Amino acid sequence: MSRAPALRLTGRATIGETTIFGPLSLEVPAGRWTCLLGPSGVGKSTLLRLFAGLGDEVSFDGNVAASDGAPLAGRVALMAQSDLLMPWLDVTANVTLGARLRGTAQPRERALDILTRVGLADHGTKRPDALSGGQRQRVALARTLMEDRPVILLDEPFSALDAQTRARMQDLSAELLAGRTILHVTHDAAEAARLGETVLLMTRDGITAIASPPASVPRLYDAPQTLAFQGHLLRRLMEAV
Length: 241
Known about the structure:
Number of strands: 9
Helix content: 25-40%
Largest sheet: 6 strands, mixed
Distance between the termini: 39 Å
CATH architecture of the largest domain: 3-Layer(aba) Sandwich
Number of helices: 8
Strand content: 15-25%
Mean pLDDT: 93
Oligomer: single chain
């Protein structure tokens, strides 16, 4: 894995005559987990797509860049809201899809290790239609972890999981993605309180940084400091609606 750069975006995004966001300025620190909170419809997912080099449907007037000046192409892994699993492939093939598309060797041993760690070791030969929504989301997470990219973009990555599984997957992701530049879109104040080294609030008026506790992530879900931060974030979200 190459060194993880910081991310920068400035500009305005529209679809037709409709403004999606902006003008705004976003800075995502290098090698840290940044959570982006905000009400629905302010353009959080569009930001991720622009960093991933997608979003052809969006007219963007501005600049998207990495702090090292190198192109982002080939250095980004995106986990979208939809799991985007290939229905004709089994779980293992879906997890190794990136290598398949690049025509490189498929690291099946690593895939098995990650599937074991996300609790799906016994499901490797199943097709997506045999899985629950939460299981499908864990397959998509495993595929993202497999890519081992320095920049990770996550769009509600744990939303389909029950509370216990969500906490375990947050812990696993924090472990396996340490040192990477992560931009994580979430509506969950508790999730941002656990994972956000940097927490940003996005509204129609722009992006505001919210000071986070000094404890390392993932923070203990029941620690007084974490719970207090969760409450503070929820209040800020309620005020932003």
